[in-house]
Specification:
GO terms for molecular function: FAD binding; monooxygenase activity. It holds the Pfam family FAD_binding_3. It comes from Saccharothrix texasensis. By secondary structure, the chain is α/β, with parallel strands linked by helices. It has a domain of 233 residues: FAD/NAD(P)-binding domain (3-Layer(bba) Sandwich). The chain is 35% helix and 27% strand. It contains 14 helices and 17 strands. Helix 1 runs parallel beside helix 5, helix 1 packs parallel to helix 9 and helix 2 packs across helix 9. The longest helix is centred in the last third of the chain and has 29 residues. The chain is globular, with a radius of gyration of 21 Å. The protein starts with a strand and ends in a 10-residue tail after the last helix.
């Protein structure tokens, strides 16, 4: 059976896959994106991108589009779980932008995904839905990608952007198991006018024993996204999500501040996610196949860097393929070496933050709150990072975890 040939096949039309495709399209490469769903739906939750993720999107000319759909919080606030009192508050907005060189935005994930897909298609990019990848078979001169429905494509390079359960990853690193964190999260979206000043224009963390809640406006500010994380040793199956019950998350946060119960109580429905990551691997690439985002380095949400790292991966990979168009193995090796150390540190930091967000009241929580005053300095290695400049200069400075 003959197969169509494309220069670069991107498997997965999430944030990382679409940014990869758009960046490659700008270089004149024929890239085709294959997405397993039949349509790019409006489903999804919130997503926060810091300067390290926004800066590459600005360079791709997406500034005006992002301003139309994003929200820019004025500050990040850490609140006591029961009283709602402010433990620490730090400015975002203009102060953040001046410090790190680009804005801090929050999005509904579907808004950002649609924006990227529209720009990619406007620039002549091809996106094929209804293509579920079954396997990839690399060789020295091409990669065969097999999809359900007895379809296949031959590509010069394949980029796996198909998430934590990536079929492309399996072809690169083998079958490895996701690692359950011992926590699960309830995600939901509520109308902003139903919660009043419980969120306002801030990125709010409510920190307490064995639980925490993160909430922020999205969709231009008319919707509030929340993630309520609980310790949950009972989760026994590897799965992204199942339907949750609002009553369960309200019971889990009984006795918390009125702002927390107001946010959770405004939800009509919630999804219940097991929070998984994977152990770092020694390689992401095999001959002409590589991985980006969660397919390469899935991380827990406690540092807010999953989407940002997918964007960083995408633009670095595109730059490497542009620099060595006729030497894909060298391009993929250079990409991986540029990204591996940083993403490993962020995977580890995300695990650590899940612990420190859920400390009981007492000396350890007080020490954490005191350290939060240094957050802009401690997080500068993350938010001030310029992935494209670091690649060009082969420089980059990494420091420690959040607290």
């Amino acid at each position: 059976m003959s197969a169509e040939h494309v220069a670069v096949a991107v498997v997965g039309a999430g944030i990382g896959g679409l940014v990869t495709a758009l960046a490659l399209r700008r270089t004149g490469v024929r890239v085709v994106v294959f997405e397993q769903t039949e349509a790019l739906t409006e489903e999804g939750a919130g997503l926060a991108l810091g300067a390290n993720g926004i800066r590459p999107l600005l360079r791709l000319g997406l500034g005006a589009e992002m301003q139309r759909v994003a929200f820019q919080p004025s500050r990040v606030v850490f609140r006591h779980w029961r009283t709602g009192g402010v433990r620490q508050a730090l400015p975002l907005g203009r102060d953040y932008e001046d410090r790190f060189g680009a804005p801090y935005y929050t999005f509904h994930r579907a808004d950002l995904r649609r924006l990227l897909a529209e720009r990619y298609r406007d620039e002549g990019g091809e996106l094929r839905t209804g293509h579920r990848c079954l396997r990839v078979t690399p060789s020295a001169d091409r990669v065969v990608v097999e999809f359900d429905g007895d379809r296949r494509v031959e590509a010069g390079v394949v980029v796996g952007a198909d998430g934590v359960h990536s079929a492309v990853r399996t072809g690169v690193v083998g079958a490895d198991r996701a690692v359950y964190s011992g926590r699960s999260g309830y995600r939901g979206l509520v109308a902003a006018d139903l919660v009043g000043d419980a969120v306002d224009d801030e990125l709010a963390f409510h920190l307490g024993p064995n639980r925490h809640l993160v909430a922020y406006p999205v969709h231009g500010g008319d919707t509030v996204n929340f993630l309520a994380v609980v310790r949950d040793p009972r989760w026994t199956r590897e799965s992204w999500v199942r339907r949750g019950r609002v009553a369960d998350v309200l019971a889990a946060f009984a006795g918390w501040s009125p702002a927390v119960t107001r946010i959770l109580g405004a939800a009509d429905e919630v999804s219940h996610w097991g929070l998984f990551d994977r152990e770092p691997v020694d390689r992401w690439s095999l001959e002409r196949v590589t991985l980006v985002g969660d397919a390469a380095h899935p991380m827990l949400p406690h540092q807010g860097q999953g989407g940002n790292q997918a964007v960083e991966d995408a633009v670095v990979l595109a730059a490497c393929l542009r620099t060595w168009p006729d030497r894909p193995a060298l391009a993929l090796d250079r990409y991986e070496r540029a990204r591996r150390t940083r993403t490993r540190m962020l995977q580890r930091g995300s695990r650590h933050n899940g612990e420190c967000y859920q400390l009981p009241d007492g000396p350890a929580a007080d020490a954490r709150d005191a350290k939060l005053r240094r957050l802009p300095e401690d997080m500068a290695w993350i938010h001030g990072y310029d992935a494209e400049t670091a690649l060009a200069t082969s420089e980059g400075t990494h420091h420690g975890e959040l607290v």
